[in-house]
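Slide 14.
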Amino acid sequence: MTATIDSVYTTTCPTGAGNDGAFHGRACDDQASGHHRALGKRFMHTVIGIIKPGTTKTAVPPKGSLRKHRGALPLATTNRLWCSVLGVALLLVSMAVPAQIQTLDKVAAIVDDDIILASELQERLGLIKRNLEQRNIEMPPDDVLYRETLDRLILESIQLQLANRYGVRIPDAQLDEAMGRMAGGSGMTLDQFRMAVEQQGQSYFAMREEIRREMMIQRVQQGNVSRNIQISDQEVDNFMATEEGEAMTQPEFRVVQALIEVSKNDSTSEVQRKEDFVDGVLASILAGAPFQEAVSVMEPYAFTGGDLGYKKINDIPSMFAGVIPSLAIGDTAKVESGAGFHLVYLADARGRERLVQQTEVRHILVKPTEVLDEDQARDLAVSLKDRINAGEAFGDLAKEYSDDIGSAQEGGELGWTNPGQMVPEFESAMAAAELNEITEPVRSQFGWHILEVTGRREQDIADDIRRRQVMGYLHDQKYEEELDAWLRKIREEAFVDIK
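Slide 15: predicted structure.
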């Protein structure tokens, strides 16, 4: 028998040999045991030349030549292959009569320092076929599906090996958050989601580990692709000047409408009563009543309608399009149509003039450490405040003492900030501070801050929002192009032997 790495074998003793197939069968015939021990020894020698347990070196002879692999074989892959190899050797050693060989699994492909088993490939094919059937999507030819699925597994293997090489890890807490978002998207708690998965005959643990692998691959892609993407101000300007850019950056309005219907059978006096009722509700809203509360009344008439979501002006019903642009956020207007009397409320708007109160601020951050405990860190912040008040330069002390790497070399300057941009404790202290006043130390999740507000202004940030929107769109376009190019590159550079 020739031992190869392409298959994983088990042996079965003839009837009465007592082998239970779990690597603890006894010798079938003491007379032949010497022969099989020798064969097992030769097999182990051959296989050990290919891979040793706990090592990271794999040498697979593709078409008669040895090739040294790059990187490190993941321990899980090494152990999986080693256990199979060890099982074969143990069985060969323990057999006492010629054994019948059965194939347990095969290697579908060797990818650098990893292998893809035929069982993995078949499992993925089965999953894809079930998904296509559930969505009523036409099934591609088997050879096409096989080839594309294997290619996908090869690319995943290459990227996971890169992730291991880079030291990419997804902590359990972060993975739980991702699983929680998946569950929330299905309207379930995490426990309900786990039960639903298991009721469908799937393994929640396997799904969880698959999500972990996908997150690792995503990290690797982002790290290798995003750094190659640069979006210039000129590119943003050019796109915004196009018809597509103008359409994308048009203002969006979130409109909520409430309707009192008028039917053809209503008398003139009934129509008047309905309009008077709507006018009364509008008056209460203008006097300060919340819109949702005001239109929730059920007597004598009940409103219908709801939230239309964010829509560009061309997508808003024409009966409202004339009045919406003139409303400020929070305003309500009455509109009459063939359906009846509407109250139209502008809940929010994106992309048009948006004035915010901006604050210019600088700070010094002192982080507690193993060397500097909580009280000592606060005392240091207090002493820095006193030194600034005594005449020392804020910027010089920030460069010397601040633990905020991003702002320390800028003298602690954070520039102009928008509401909600900072952590809540910092935001509150900043809002309460007088101009050019050094605050008392403020504790946040990052440590102890002292800060100084150096300016306040009202600023229209609508153009900034539009530019960020365009920049995000252009980045996504370039990302897909760069990702395809990068995947082709790593595929070409990898050693792949398809069996």
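Speaker note: Residues 37 and 50 are 20 Å apart (CA to CA).
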